[in-house]
Backbone:
């Protein structure tokens, strides 16, 4: 049960809620000082489903049960939000009435509830962020039903026109921060990874991907005289996903390139193709990389300075389809060796006879 939230001594701020100005009182409260909003449109369907599952009304279902149910809903992404709050706290204040009733922020509320529930289950200390939840308090007597909907509209319908950072900017920030952590021995490498995880929420493998992709793009930028660097920087900005893909396929994965023989000449051609805008889409990066291991396709690509990438891509897809077919044949043979022929149905035997005939003809043609 929520309790009244005091606004005494707090200087009110005027805030616009979808063309209506209201006094709000910014403060911090404990999680228990807030009660969730059962009629929230984002969670009303899950609440109905939970009531049907439990056979009782929502008010009779415990908060941990409600939280656990919502955490299993992929559309709410509650666990990811809870992990973010555990690292960074609640970054966007909840909007509450002075009686503790939640007006906006149900998802953040249940993410906090999930943190509390998880800590109790794992017998861990109560997360400190649950004692410092930022809220904007509105006095109950200052609003009516229509104003409630204006608050909802402002929080959920009106676009904030925020533009998410593109991949190259994210990579640049992570790369800078990571190297800054390592600078002059401030942190060990492991400590730097932990710091990135704490500040940005990115794990080691993602940090490596960012840092290595930036390194390759910087090598591209620095491959030209100073007068052309800004031109190449703009190319990187528009094509950073290609550098990301190059890193993933050339340096990592199941078949990374040999660093002394294959990588230098593939990288040189990749840079040339980025400079001359040869790629039609980033998925052509992998066929371009794999071409180095086939004399015919590499000659085709290198001699044309990348202009034959469509043809090379078609050959790569064809080879990939052949390998896929070969894998299916191997799997079929493995199954055939393990099965008891007496267990085959008449239909299966007929198909095998047809297969044997076709294989015999194919082998005869080869001879």
Residues:
């Amino acid at each position: 049960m929520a309790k009244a939230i005091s606004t005494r001594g707090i200087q009110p701020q005027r805030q616009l809620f979808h063309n209506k100005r209201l006094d709000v009182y910014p403060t911090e409260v404990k999680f228990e000082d807030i009660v969730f909003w059962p009629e929230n449109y984002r969670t009303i369907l899950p609440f109905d489903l939970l009531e049907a599952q439990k056979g009782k009304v929502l008010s009779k279902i415990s908060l941990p049960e409600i939280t656990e149910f919502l955490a299993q809903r992929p559309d709410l992404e509650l666990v990811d939000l809870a992990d973010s709050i555990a690292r960074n706290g609640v970054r966007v204040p909840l909007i509450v009435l002075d009686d503790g009733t939640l007006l906006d922020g149900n998802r953040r509320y249940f993410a906090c509830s999930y943190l509390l529930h998880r800590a109790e289950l794992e017998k861990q200390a109560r997360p400190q962020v649950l004692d410092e939840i930022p809220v904007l308090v509105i006095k109950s007597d200052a609003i009516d039903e229509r104003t409630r909907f204006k608050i909802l509209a402002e929080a959920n319908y009106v676009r904030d026109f925020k533009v998410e950072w593109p991949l190259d900017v994210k990579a640049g920030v992570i790369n800078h921060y990571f190297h800054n952590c390592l600078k002059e021995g401030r942190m060990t490498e492991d400590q730097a990874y932990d710091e990135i995880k704490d500040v940005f929420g990115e794990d080691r493998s993602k940090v490596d991907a960012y840092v290595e992709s930036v390194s390759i793009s910087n090598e591209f930028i620095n491959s030209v005289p100073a007068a052309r660097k800004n031109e190449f920087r703009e190319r990187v900005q528009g094509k950073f996903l290609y550098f990301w893909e190059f890193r993933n396929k050339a340096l990592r994965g199941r078949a990374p390139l040999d660093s002394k023989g294959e990588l230098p000449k593939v990288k040189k051609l990749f840079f040339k193709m980025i400079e001359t805008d040869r790629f039609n889409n980033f998925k052509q990066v992998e066929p371009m990389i794999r071409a180095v291991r086939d004399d015919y396709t590499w000659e085709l690509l290198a001699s044309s300075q990348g202009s034959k990438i469509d043809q090379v891509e078609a050959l790569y897809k064809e080879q990939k389809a052949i390998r896929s077919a070969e894998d299916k044949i191997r799997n079929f043979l493995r199954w055939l060796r393990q099965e008891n022929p007496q267990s085959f149905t008449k239909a299966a035997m007929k198909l095998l006879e047809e297969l044997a005939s076709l294989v015999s003809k194919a082998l005869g043609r080869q001879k």
